[in-house]
Structure prediction request, 123 residues.
Amino acid sequence: MKKKILICDDDQGILEMLEIVFNEDKYEVLTEGNSLRVFECIKNFRPDLLILDLWMPVLSGDQITQKIKSQPDDAHMPVLIMSASRDGGEIAKNAGANAYIAKPFNVNEFVDLVDKLNSEAIT
Prediction:
């Protein structure tokens, strides 16, 4: 069975690139450009991994992560935050994210990190 990844970023180019990278035999990918729809996507799609941009309009990746990690039904879901922010790693860690990757990122390192998070995830 394919692992499900939900990716939320307000940059359509990043969403399209990551969808191409991960939408292969191993993963089923859902992308969302509006951070306000993330919780509805989680409820309907039930992802195994959530990838979030840190800085998005209205709801930021750290705010989404904090809410997810505080909900018993979703707290187990691994969250990977990505950001070009200099202090993004610290913000992601403080929010409860399982991992962080800096933008611009190396695609191979990104894939390795996602594979690692998915192999550690309890499903």
Q: What stands out?
A: The mean pLDDT is 94. The two ends are 11 Å apart (CA to CA). The CA atoms of residues 27 and 36 lie 24 Å apart.
